[in-house]
Structure formats: structure tokens, C-alpha cells
Amino acid sequence: MVYLNARDQAVASADFAKLAHIILRQRFLRACVYEVPFAYMVAVVANLSFRTGVFSLLYALVLPRTLGYTVAAYLAGVASLIVHAQLFQVTRAAHSSHFPRLQRLLRHPASTGTAVGVYVLLAYFLLIVHRAMFGGNFARMWLYPEGAYGPPQLNPGWLASWVFATAMGAGYALSLLANERLQLAFPAIEQSRIYALKDRLPGSFARAFGFATGVLWRFWLGYFVFGWGLYRSVCGVLARIFSTSAYGVGSPLLSASSLIFWLHSGVLMTLTWELAHQLFETILTEPTHINELSLDRNLCLLNGLKHSDSPLIQHLAFQELYRLTTFSAEQRTEILTDIDRPSGTMWTQISGECIGVIKAATTQLQAQAPPPEKPKPAKPALASSFDASVAVRAGGAPMKDILQRNRRAPPNGQPPAPAEPTSSVDLFGIEAQGLEKYVLTALRDMLMRSPLGQRIWSRSQRARSISTFSNFQQQVWAVRALMRLVERSIVEDQFGVVQADISSVLGCLLAYLTELERSAAQTDGTTAYNVQAASRQTVAMVQVLRNSLYTFTTTFYEYLEALKLPPALARQLQPFADFKA
Question: For residue 434, is it left (φ>0), alpha (ψ between -120 and 50) or beta?
Fold first, then answer.
């Protein structure tokens, strides 16, 4: 009897998920290996000194202190990789909040607390290492202002350094969650890992410096206001334990060496975490070739498309489908000619998964549509005086109109009426529940009590962008892969399996396009005229759908009449055939 290992069993059974888990574990180990040169680079940067002139870099490369800092940066980087592996997201939670960043932090309190706790501990660890190597007076917890035999005094710079490290760790963790940086961004093109990482290095250095300086000036202001009270409170607690000196000490906020120390340590902390973040995202989102490892490539790919237990596995499957339908004529032909399966042709099953993704998005948009309102008599001066390009039309609104964010005043020169703040209990979306909704509602009520808060609230109403896409990238891959198979079927479909489904495919895409255009052109109920509040995803998806439909009409231009599409569908497709959509 022959016993197969886990990889061979997955290959034999065409289990996309098992093969994907094996590949992902290997990639995480590779990320840990790649972290070594990044940690060494951080250590070299930490040990650069202007006092040694042009030989600073050479000295930093061989200093024993560089090796010690490399070990510390590597441990912190691996810990950051583990946090990313536990908390990363593939899909985003759709929200209708006026304060989306706050809502992201409140939606999963356990994840927020875990990320903040881990990064604060990492900041403490790096602070201890940095202070041991570069700290000087900051490495001492106690000062003896009254002499070596006098009572000790708590070092104010030591305490301020711990507060600064806390602000750095908590701030970075909250920025990762609030700005959705833990959501994986799949690359648009396939390139070498080295080149992908190289392109991200300048941005990582700039982001590290910008984040550290931002935290530093906020910390300086906060500690200037509350630091003395905190210091006296800590000294009061310590005085109950043993005798301390009451000798007056200076503030570290007014010391140039303190500011340089904090900026130096903060930049190195952020750079360590930022490089680990870029490394994790680059390696984990690389295009895979999992189906090529299986004996039955088509079935393996189909199993991945159906794998709904793990969003990452399903995304990798759709990414592979898009890649092979775009660049591999051999596998496209293999899919279109695979017709002898008991469950149906491979084209029917794969296209069904793609159409399912598009229909789910269409249903989601339809559910978010506002209820129809009773028609109100319009004033004659405003009845026909609006620019038609303000609203997205089903036939031919240019993309620059969709991107327009500012309101257009009526031509009669009258300024628009100010937005009236609303007090609806569902302002933060029906998805907000529990602690999340309680905090957001309390924040809204607090803002509504002051004129300044009302101005901020009304401004956020006008500027909000409702996120309607939980799996935007998956939808893009599904649309492009589906239409690529349809386009190439004109020459590669030997058995005509695609021709019978062209009407349903086009109807699905046109229905989605109609809902997107309606969503992009929704009227803001707080004013009397139309406003475009389309999100970036809406604009991008409209463009993807229009490009796909234009490609279809140009490919099948000579055969459109022979397809005998239903009249309603033909009317919707006619603007694309006339190049006027």
C-alpha cells in the first residue's frame, strides 16, 4: 500500500483549498526569511551617524551594535507578520456610516484590542533596545539630584519615553485598522517579488517618517498639557512605597536631545512595522498557479471558486481564473471543451460561479436603493435648468462626470439650501449594533448640541461615500474572466457551449451596470438638486463593465443580429453597438 503525504493527496483529489493552504504556509515562511535583510537594513539605518562622515555607512555595516539591533528588529518584524496573518481581511464590511473609520474600530473590538496590545508591547520592546543602545540619560529610571546618597527622583524623560512608545504602538495599530490597511490589495500586474518590494521601499521610508513626526507633535502637545499631572501622579504612588526626592527637575519636552531621541526611535519602530506590512502583503497576494499542480486542473479550479469557507482561498481561485482566461489559450480551450462531466459542462459551472458573484452584488445594490418617494411639484425655475451632465445617464455619461464631487449651483445664481442635520436612528446603517451603535449614536447626539458640531455633521453628510462592495476585486475578476471566455468563444468554442448563454451573461452585466449608474446618480435628499456621491469602487466597476461590453460588441459586431437577443436586452446593448454608451 502506498501512503501519500498531504500535498500528494491534495494533488490527487483536486482539492484547491488544501493546495492553497500548503502554498500559503510556504509563503509565510518565505516572508519570515525575507524579513532578515529588512531587519538588517533597519539596523544599518539606526546606526548611521553624521559624525563619521562618508564612512558612516561602512561603519554601520560592520558595527557589533548593528547585529544586536538586527535581531531585535527581526523579532519585532516576525511578530508583526504574525499579527497580519491573524487579522488580515480580504473582503471589506459594507457600511453607511458618516464616521467609517470609527465604525471599523468598533465593529470588531477583540481584533482592535489585540492589534493595539501587540503593537504597544512591540513598541516597548523596541524602546528598551533603542534606549539600551542610544538612550544615554534616558536609559536611567532614577536620577539623584541631591547626590549619590540622597533619595532618588524619577527620571521625567524615562517616563515620557514610555508614554511616547505607547502612543506609537497604539497609533500604528489603530491606523492599520481604521484605514483598512490590513485588507489585502491584490496587484494589478504580475511582476517579480524583488521588483514589487523594491517599488514599495521609498513609500515605506516616507510613511515611516511622516507617521513618526505626526505622532511626535501630537504627543508633545498632549504631554505638554497633561504630562506634568501624570508625572506627579506616578511620583505620588512611588512615594507611598519608598522615599523619593522632591528636588525640581526639568521637562524633557524642552530638550532637543529628547526630541531627537523620540523621533529617531519612532522612525525606526514604524519602519520595522511598515516593512513587515509591505512584505506580508506582497508575498501573500502574489498570483498563484495552484490548479496547475492538480491532475484535474479544471475541477481543482472549480472547487476553489466554490470554496466559500475562506474568502482568501476563493479570491485566489478567481485571481487564477482571470489570469488563465486572459493569458493562457490552452486552458481557455480546455475549459470550453470540457463537456462530458455528470454535473454539466465546465463552462456552465464556472460561468455560474462568476454570474453568482455579479448577481449577489446587484441584489446588494437593489437592497440599498431608497424607497420611491411621492412626486413633489417642482418649481418652474428649477424644473429644466440643471445641467444634464450632473447625473449619470444610462447612455453615455463621461467618466469625468461620475468623478465630480462638488455640488453645482442652480444657474439662477441662488445658493443651495444648507443641509439640515437629520436625527434618524439608522444614520450609521442597519448593520451597526450593540456597543458600536451606542457609541456612534452618542457621538452624533453630542455633535448636534453645538453649532460647530452641526456644521461638521452636515459636511460629513455631503462628503460621505457609501461602501457597497464587500468583494470588489473578486467582482472585477469575475466580470473580466467571464467576458474573456465569451469573447474568445468566437474562435475557441468548438462545441458551441457558450452561444446559448450569451443572453443571460449580457443581461446579468447590464442589470449590474444599471444599478451602479442608479447608485452613482442618487439624489441627496437634503437639497433640491442632484449630487454625485459615487465612491471610487462604483466608478471603477462602471468602467470595467462598460469596457467589457464594448469589447463584446466589437468582437461580435458582425454577428450581433444573428445572436437574436431578446428585445429588451437588445435595446440596452444598442448604445454600445452605436458607440454612444
Answer: left
Amino acid in the structure at residue 7: R
State the residue for C-alpha cell 501630537: 218
Is 14 in a helix, a strand, or coil? coil
SS3 153: strand
Contact 575, 581 (CB under 8 A): yes
Residues 6 or more apart from 233 whose CB is under 8 A from it? Answer: none
**Which residues share a beta bridge with 183?**
89
Residue 2 — very low, low, confident or very high, per pLDDT cuts 50/70/90?
A: very low
Q: Provide the 3-class DSSP secondary structure of residue 78.
A: helix
Query: Which amino acid, residue 432?
Result: A
Alpha carbon 468 to its chain centroid, in Å, reads 14
SS (H, E, C) 321-339: HHHHHHHCHHHHHHHHCCC
Pairwise CA distance, residues 502 & 508, whole Å: 10
Please give the span between the terminal C-alpha atoms of the chain, in angstroms, as a whole number.
64
Greatest mean pLDDT range, 6-10, 56-60, 494-498: 494-498
Tell me the pLDDT band of 1, cut-offs 50, 70 and 90.
Answer: very low
User: Cα(120)–Cα(112) distance, rounded to whole angstroms?
Assistant: 12
The kind and range of the H/E element at 175 are helix 156-178
What is the C-alpha separation between 245 and 152, in angstroms, rounded? 6
108 burial type by CB count under 10 A (0-12 exposed, 13-18 middle, 19+ buried): middle
Quickly count: other Cβ atoms within 10 Å of residue 51's Cβ.
Answer: 6
pLDDT tens digit sequence for 139-164: 678 877 777 777 888 888 889 999 99
**545, 509 in Cβ contact below 8 A?**
yes
Span 160-173, pLDDT tens digits: 999 999 999 999 99
Phi/psi at 98 (nearest 5 deg)? -80, -15
Phi/psi-derived region of residue 191, left when phi > 0, alpha when psi is between -120 and 50, beta in every other case: beta
Residue 372: half-sphere exposure toward Cβ, Cα within 13 Å = 2
Label residues 485-516 b or e (16+ Cβ within 10 Å = b): bbbbbeebbeeebbeebbeebbbbbbbbbebb
Give CA–CA dist 241/236, Å, rounded.
9
Distance between CA 204 and CA 278 in Å, rounded?
Answer: 8
